[in-house]
Design a protein that fits this description.
Strand order of the largest sheet: 1-2
Structural class: mainly alpha
Radius of gyration: 22 Å
Helix content: over 70%
Distance between the termini: 27 Å
Length: about 425
């Protein structure tokens, strides 16, 4: 039995590695321009025009809200139009919106550009990638997802520092379109060659999973759903908010070269944390892993607040924060895979991610307001610490799986219970 299981796992990876590579490349672009990019856009637009952080953050929040509204339908779009069209179309829209942001000369122009980014994000973020990988992986979906979403950290390592450097050299207006076009030319062929258009059969239900839930309303009534969605909404709000303000917080303390180095350290730590955990993630208690991840990020941010005048502490805090970044994105889908029926996976994940995205959509605006009121970004980082600590405590509150009711069938001289 074990030999057969190993052969099945090996077969999954032989068939699925091109899909993992395509999703990895897509994540580099999506997170690089839609998740890490706003931190660069914020700093560069403030430097060029002096616009308030809260107004720029509100435009960024719009992209997250639009994406959140579309996420519950991402799985259905993949089934109808195919994974290649949805994923590549999402990347093209993110690139177009990012170019629009870089070309703005008035505040109002940020809003339509971010609207385009939000539509693209729905087709190229973790919900789309997790749903696509679920078609090819069953037994080692956690490992495959961890490898694929390492591209999200690579987006911070490759795209964000490149945008910072190119913006200081050539200006934001030239940096964004040049880098976006270069990456799209390399990534789109990987998607169309590596991902098969046909759907795979759904995997068997995991032991202890809830029965399939009929419709979104039934899912929203489940306490177990909220025990996943709520803490991850808090954690991702803190993470996205910190990503948006990180450049602005570090630039006065480390300078442009030091800030680029800190961003690289954060991204490398994110990739390292995910890769170190990925071989064992399918066997661990993923809720406890989540709590430890949130706590480590809170510790890193606390260090950055406590020692603003010490570059080594800022770099170490950036590394601790980065260690959990990738896992915060991957863990919800793994917990959902373990605790919900496969037929409900896409809908549950879409709703959970949408709820989280609606929560973190307001994060840049709130943190921008906190910064404007407090006169600095230190208070904004403190808010992120509070969110991470709350998430670490609430994710451990498990909800029991309801057992099916037993029924007794009366037959002559026998009683059968099922």
């Amino acid at each position: 039995m074990r030999v057969r299981d190993r052969r099945q796992v090996a077969g999954e990876f032989r068939r699925g590695w091109p899909v993992v590579l395509a999703c990895f490349a897509a994540a580099i672009f999506a997170w690089g321009f839609a998740a890490f990019g706003p931190a660069v856009y914020l700093a560069e637009l403030q430097r060029a025009y002096g616009w308030p952080a809260a107004r720029i953050g509100t435009a960024t929040s719009l992209s997250f809200l639009v994406g959140a509204g579309l996420l519950p339908w991402t799985g259905a779009a993949i089934e109808r139009f195919g994974p290649r069209l949805v994923l590549s179309g999402g990347l093209v829209l993110i690139g177009a919106g990012a170019v629009g942001v870089s070309r703005t000369t008035a505040l109002w122009q940020l809003y339509p550009a971010n609207l385009v980014i939000g539509v693209g994000w729905a087709g190229a973020s973790s919900t789309a990638i997790s749903t696509i990988l679920a078609r090819s992986f069953d037994r080692r979906r956690g490992l495959a997802l961890s490898f694929a979403l390492t591209g999200a950290s690579a987006g911070g390592f490759a795209v964000a520092p490149a945008l910072v450097s190119l913006s200081h050299w050539r200006g934001l207006r030239a940096a964004v379109p040049e880098l976006a076009l270069l990456l799209l030319v390399a990534i789109l062929p990987l998607i169309w060659l590596g991902i098969r258009a046909s759907a795979e059969s759904p995997p068997a239900a995991p032991p202890g999973a809830l029965p399939a839930l009929a419709g979104r309303r039934a899912i929203l009534r489940e306490a177990r759903f909220w025990s996943i969605a709520a803490p991850f909404a808090l954690a991702i709000s803190a993470q996205v908010g910190m990503m948006v303000v990180e450049v602005s917080y570090l630039l006065p303390l480390l300078g442009s070269a030091g800030t680029a180095l800190a961003l690289m350290a954060t991204s490398i730590a994110g990739a390292s944390g995910r890769l170190a955990l990925s071989p064992a993630i399918d066997r661990l208690d993923q809720r406890r892993v989540s709590a430890a991840t949130f706590a480590a990020q809170a510790a890193g941010l606390t260090l950055m607040i406590a020692c603003p005048g010490h570059p080594p502490a800022l770099y170490l805090g950036s590394i601790l924060f980065g260690l959990g970044m990738g896992n915060v994105v991957a863990l919800p889908s793994l917990i959902i895979q373990r605790e919900f029926a496969p037929s409900s996976f896409g809908t549950v994940l879409g709703l959970s991610t949408a709820f989280g995205q609606m929560a973190y959509a307001v994060s840049p605006t709130v943190l921008g307001l906190v910064r404007d009121l407090a006169g600095g970004y230190r208070a904004s980082v403190a808010v992120c610490v509070a969110l991470q600590v709350t998430a670490a405590l609430t994710v451990l509150r498990r909800q029991r799986t309801p057992r099916p009711r037993r029924t007794t069938i009366a037959l002559p001289n026998w009683h059968f219970r099922n």
